[in-house]
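Case study: SEC-C metal-binding domain-containing protein.
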Amino acid sequence: MKKDIGRNDPCYCGSGKKYKNCHMGKESAGINNNKNLMYIAIMVVIVAIAGFSIYYNAQQTPVQNTNSQSTPVPPPPGEAPPGKVWSSAHGHWHDK
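Here is what the predicted structure looks like once written out:
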């Protein structure tokens, strides 16, 4: 149908317009539109996977008790590491 048409040659459709003002922009717009749809579909899939991952991890992670009136935690067995002291309120070692 169209063979080696230059920008300024008459359009192959017979409209009398130059190719650049007739079908040149319309043909490339279809390709870009398909690429845009592909990128949108990929982004939707990525967002769906991320949302599912966040939801799934939230369901699997136990909630820690942040209540300041929680029961004291006993120190682990054995000696304290050098320069450390056990905090039963926080449940871990602190620097002296």
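For the exam, be able to explain this: The chain is about 40% helix and 10% strand.
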